[in-house]
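Hi V.,

You were right to ask for the full record rather than a summary. Here it is.
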Amino acid sequence: MSSPPDVSSRKKRRVLTVWTPEDQAFWAQEGQAIANVNLWISIPALFLAFAVWQMWSVVAVNLPNLGFQYTENQLFWLAALPALSGATLRIFYSFMVPVFGGRLWTTLTTASLLLPTIGVGIAVQDPTTPYSTMLMLALLCGLGGGNFSSSMSNISFFFPKERKGSALGLNAGLGNLGVSSVQFLAPLVITMGVLGPWAGGPQMATLSGAHGAPTEVWAQNAAFIWVPFIIIVTMLAWVGMHDIADAKASFSQQAIIFKRRHNWIMCFLYLGTFGSFIGFSAGFPLLIKYLYPDIRPLQYAWLGPLVGAMARPFGGWLSDRLGGARVTFWTFFWMVLGVLGVMLSLPDGQSAGSFPGFLLAFLFLFFLTGIGNGSTFAMIPVIFNTLAQRRHAAGSPANAEAEGAKESAAVLGFSGAMGAYGGFFIPKSFGTSFDLTGSADAALVFFIVFYAISIAVTWWFYARREAEIPC
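Predicted structure:
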């Protein structure tokens, strides 16, 4: 039985058979409006993905107060596993939009966030929940981390080259706000029964600042608070987003990026920018706890991710005007100075250190990671469009444009996957540095060396006058 005419018509309107954003007339008449609709649905979907991904950074801290008998090492793994699974899922998610379409894939991946949120909300209400169950739920939170790669890949198809940096910066920057939001909101909502009796009753817990007195908390709210928003955005994605017919490609067609040297170079640079953002976000609260015991970490931890997320759209906008390579080069230069500022503020045997100096230096680093996140992602479309044009110099410009768009989208997703591993390795570097030396200095020196190498790589391949691909 065939679909009614109105249903068939709606389906056709969701698939864009003609999409030429580089055509200024097309862009002005209808392209810009459609692209903006997809962007402004993508942003809250990505915001929720980041919130779910980083949920365990708050949940794990509260488990001992609720009667869960987990060791410190077990709690560390609960906080770290979402980063590992999220980064790994990004590898696969990088290639899914051209296979399934951006509308369907965004709908499915947003809906998938219900699995960890409902699961965690139920599990934290019972202190006898097996640790293996908690590990599985932590791994499922990586679904939120995976969404980033497909989201950025999808949005890259909708905008012309001169607007990609700003669009990708907005998508990622406002989406990254989910990190600071979960760290800011979760401690508030667990102290109130804001979701009513359907979400479960309160538990008794001893919280910091309560002077040892048991307090009623609704720990499940840290997870359940996101459920209604996930449902709403899932429906918005299905009803309002579009698929681009020309963006379809199989995995084998996209896998060509593994043979592109500049794919791996940009993965390295993005590890230095986004890897630093997500890694510092995960490690910042613990650093405050260990280095400045008199300071309450959760009062300040959310500020860093907030600054980094807000800076990312500015990094994309700045790159559209000055060039992504130039912005990336100077970002890494200032990051070296930012790490030196952190080192100068640390406590040592003769001094208690300066927490205001430490906080300001770290906020400066977070700001720079946001700028670098935007600038590196602004570089990728330019690099791969240029390479495609060179390969098709004597052929069809349309073929070059389509090939460059598909490779750019795949690289945006794959580099996002590689960068996400910083969410595990940076906190682990701090932990190893404390274990081996008793301070964070060794890890910070390693970061300086990494950023110095990134400066050289950016200059050699992209920023100098005779660079292989000036961008």
